[in-house]
Structures are given as C-alpha cells and as structure tokens.
Amino acid sequence: MSNFVPEAGRTGIHVRPAHFRKCEVAARLALDAFGLNNMGARLEVKTFIPECVGMGSSTTGVVASIRAVAHAVSAYRGARMMPAPHLQATLAVAAEHASDSLMFDCTATTILFAHRIGKIVRTFNGPLPQMHILGFDTGSARDGVDTDRLPRARYSRDQIAAFGCALAVLERAIAEQSVALAGRVATFSAKMSETAVQNPLKKPKFNELLRIKEGTGSAGIAVAHSGTVAGLIFDPALPDLRTRVAEASSAIAHLGFDHFRTFSTPY
Amino acid sequence: MADRLYEIVGAHAPLKIVSLPPENLAAIDFRIMKVFPAFNIIDAGIRNGEIGRNRTIVETSSGTMALGLAIVCMHFGLKLHIFGDRAIEPPLQRTMEDLGAEVHLVDAAASDANVQLLRKNALLDFLDRTGATWTRQYDNLGNRLAYARPAEEAIRQFGKIDALVATVGSGGSSCGLAHYCRAFFPEMKLVGIDTFGSVLFGQPASHRDLRGLGNSILPGNLLHEAFDEVHWLGANEAYQAAHRLHRETSLKRGPTSGAAYLVAKWYTQNCPGSKVLAVFPDDSSRYEHNVYDPTWLNRHGYRAPHAAAEPILVHSPLRASGGWCRFDWRRRSLADVMASSHS
Question: How many CA atoms lie within 13 A of B286 on its CB side?
C-alpha cells in the first residue's frame, strides 16, 4: 500500500522507507505520464510481502505507487483518472525493467505476460483451475535473491522448442479446468529453471522436492524463476487433501525449508 | 521471409488433428510430414552460418524427405541434389525438378537390401567433387527437433496423449514427437512400426517390399530406449490397411498412414480408455497407380484375405517373420534387446 501526498512546487519524490527506490521511480514516471513533470511528492510504502524471495514484492510496490499517484492526481484534479492495466504495465517495466503481471485482473482469463516488454503476449480463454498451493521458501537458510542483479537465464534450442508445447498443455489445462495438466506445466517450467544452459536458478534439494511431489500425490511443483519460493500444487478436489498436504508439509520442513503459507489460486 | 515460409510449410502440412472412430483415437494428418524436418534443418543451418547463400544441398532419399527439401530449398533459393533410387517414380521426379532440384537415381531396385548404401556412396562421391552441404536427415538433430511444433498442435487439439503410434524410418518423427510429448506426459507409450528386413529394431537387412518406413542403415535419430512396443508389418498388411483407412474414414492416404491406422486401432481396442494418437506422414498421390489400383495389387499377389488381421506376439525381433508381429521393447537399448533375444 502506498500513501501518496502531492506537493506542488517540488520536483523530487521523497520515498519512505528510503530503500523503495523502484517505487520512487514508478511514482515519478506516473506523474510524468499525467503531464505533471514539475510535481513533487512524498511517498510512503507499507508492505507485508516478503522481499527478495520471488513473491512479486517489487512489482506490488511499483503498481501500488502508480495507483497511489493516480488517486492523488484524481483528487488534485477533481476527476477520477486511473491508467488502464496495460499502461500500468508499461510504467512498471519502465520503472523496474522486468515486472510481474499483477496489474492485470486474472480471475476471468489467464494471460501470458512478456515481463521485460510489459505486454500481454497471449490471452487464454478462462482462468487457471482452482489450485491448492503449499508454499515454502527454499532460501530460508540463506540471503534472498536480488532479482535485479540476477543474470538472465538462457535456454537451449531444444528447450525453447518445447516452450510452445508447454503453452499447449496450459491451454488444455484452462479449457478442461484440470489441475493435473496445470501441474505438469508448472513442473516442466521448474525443470527448465533448473536446467537452463546458462544461469540456471537451481533450487536446493530440487530432486528431493520432486520425490515429495510424487509421494504425496501433488499435481506439480511451481518455483520462482527469480527468487527462492516454491510451492507444491494440489487438486482441492482430492478426497484426502488435508492428509496429503500435511504429509508434504512435514516432509518439506524436514528438508529445512520454512513453511510459508497455503493458499488457493486464482481465487 | 520466415513468416511466409511458415505459411508455405503450413500449406503443405496443415497440422490437422483428426478424430477417428473409435472414441479416443485421433491422427495427426500431416500429408507431407517431411517439410518440417526439411525446413528446420535448412533454417537452422542458415541461422548458424553452416549454410551460406548459393550453397548446394545434397541428401539421399526416395520419399517425402526429398520432396520436403525440394519445397524448402526452392523457397530459400538453394540448389538441391537428391540421390535416390527407383522408388522415385517419374511424377515425383518431375515435381522435384519443377522446383529446381536435380535428381540422381542409383541403379538398384528400390527393394534391394543395400539400396541406402548405394545411394549414400553416390552422394559421398558427389560431396568429394563439389563440397556441397549434406543435410544428413538420419543423424541431424534438427530432424528430431523439427517436431516440437507438431507436438504442440497435437497437445493443443487432442489434450493428454496416452499412446503415440508412429511408423519409423529416420526416427525423427517418432522420437521427436515422443520427446516433446513426454516432457509433460513421461508415461506416454511409444509404439513404433517397422517392416520385415529393416535393421531398425534388430532384424538383419534383407529385401523389403514395403517402403516409406524401415531402413537398411541405423540412423542416429533413432533412440531405441524411447520405444515401449514395436510392430513389424508386411507390405500386404500396410496396403490393405491404407484401403481400410480410406473406406472407414474417407481419408485417402499412403500405406505408412495405413500402417499407423491399423496398429493404432488395434492398440485402442486393446487398451480401452487410452487416448491414442496415430501419425499419418503421407498422402496418396504416389500410390494411385499401385496401392490404390486393384489390377496392380492383383498382379503382385496382394490380396485382402491374405493380410494378417491380428499381431503375433514374438519374444525376439529375430522371430518376427511375415504378416504382422509385435514385440515388447520396454524402453531398452538395441544391444540390451538383442542380448536377451538369442532365439
């Protein structure tokens, strides 16, 4: 949540806490986009999202800052003006070079988002199936990942050729509302992150995690491609869901990873 | 250029998945399947600098790979020399020549056991003299990688695939499609179809009546460990299967497509509930005057009542002899299978 108070006659953005630099840049760019190049501001950022683990903390801050600017400008001009999501995406990518897609509401459709260009590449006709996610942090014992400094992963010709197939499986997962198929795509994606030919972001004990997935009837494993969080995907319709999740949870704790939270997505 | 070529590839091989009876059976109906490996090999060669402008391309083939290359080389403005045998009949030769290819036929009957070797020697001799680029469909990884797009389309239109039934020649389509499908469905069964006298799955090279599948040399693109089951079909079985495919589905395709239909249908009936995808690599244009001509069939002794209606389970590839045989390959290497198969 960003609380933004416009101050006429000043040029800079004063952000607090001071390390939210991306939010500061985003607020500046948003003001510029409204044509208020000479307008300064004081920006206060409050967040409960853990930073540097791949939970989208920076994009959350950036998008909240852009929206806070829009609210403040609306109040200043006496007319509601909120940039459309695709414009928020353009501003976010300009502010932080690569963004998550959370400026878009994905409860009715699923999007494929080019995170460095800030554009929707493809819209799938429907939401992701409802999934039960057991989330945890594979970086518990270490420092987080500075996603800005992360070298870009590079994939082989063979891997890139398979990406199209992954989208085809995802399309079927959405059409059939199949957690099993969505899980297959997530697991494939996690394996690609492990085996990229350049700069793979390997998760500690990945093979043990795959075994836990198999052993507990999880549909798939999802990992942050620029972070340390991961999650096991379960079909909420499983009759013994609670037992399986509890089993997986204790096995993961046994590996030394902090349990984060379980949640349901996309709603 | 690239976009236009994708359209041309799509026009020759539209990647249509056709649902067939019974339920849970479908075919990827390529028509000219080999435009995919031809395009991928040439396109990758140009991108990585191995194939320069005004380069001459050479390949040995008597079937659709030759045609696929002729189509692709014509669009890239590359000169193509094909070394084939008498399986290239005048209409196909004219088609390729119209597209600017030069066709060299070695003097051997198409069914001779060593025909691939003779074609290859003629090609090597030409390479020595000219320094052309050999696309090596049998060993070029670009052949297998070309099947990512077809696999994508198969999954998109058919969903999860439980079994893939494909004829095997270079190993490109069978192993390529299986590789990409198994990235998501590792338990998917791969059922390969070969013919008697082909060396692909452990038989000694000998005279082969059925062409379009099988091989007299072992291609590098064939990964034996990918196969769960192997079937061998005779020429009569494949020819009658092509007729059956036509009569039952109205799709008039070549005998390799017929072979895939026959085995896929058998597999579907034996594993009810499995979603089975058959690979149809070719259309019927080369077979109107032979396989689809009753007089020709009669003259050569190919009669429907003689065709095997069921496979015989054999316990060694060396035991497969005539009609329709199947063998439980179980994802083993060729050496492993042969070591445990002293009949």
Answer: 25
